[in-house]
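Sample entry (283 residues):
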Amino acid sequence: MFVAAWREADKNLQRVSSGLVDPGYHFLKPTLFVNVSMPERKKIYLFNWLSARALWISQVDLRSPSRFPSPQMWRDFLNTIDTDPLPSTQTTLRKSAVQDILGEGIINSAQGLAGAPEEITWRGMQVKISSLSNPPLWFIWSLLWELYELNFRYELYALDRGLIPNLWSSSDEMWLTCQTLLYSIFPGESGLVMWSESLPQDSCKLGLCATDVLTALPYINKFCHLLSVWPGVPARLQYLVEMKDQDDKEVYAVFSLVCGFYVQTAFDFLRRQPSLLRMFQFV
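Predicted structure, serialized as tokens:
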């Protein structure tokens, strides 16, 4: 639904309202791994991300930076091989900007393969560093899914706080109410920080992406509820949707509507394609 909504979105830049929400990426784009053709480069990219991952997630969740890196900045961070023996002033400035955003601790945690251990831990599993140049399919699928999820969740959080700041800041009680509603859109008990939980074992654990309509329905309604106070929301999203007599047409219609509204609104404030949820590939 989200991918289809993006295809249909109006991408006219005259719609964009800049400055309300930072357009940077909370987490690196998964395509940065997909588009790496050299095995050794892929190995370095993956190792650097795995080395910094837990610290960066914690930093974003607890002390979120005021701005986030662009895709090029994320690429500079992942790429600890200096391919330019005479770096330009622009390159130097860009690397300095990356360090300013990510912080010294994150930069120091990802220094390439020199002195790297034989294994690194990811979601409680040991991954051999030597395998990262040609990683197992289950691992790369899971890693990419996690990045899609993290980007979507924190982008939604940033948009919600940017579009309805008065609700988030009116009182501690209201802040907790907004946070609880946001967390309820996603399965599990860890809120936005889903990396601390085990990987999904079946489609019932996929929330909005669950293949079973009845399983996805509560999450769809929570998503609609969250967006129901955003500017320009369609009136239909201000009411719960129910599946009557096993007829799921109304549910699909509302889900399509809320995806379209979210994707269009996100573009209007981010000036780019928003991060979209993807189905988890079970192996």
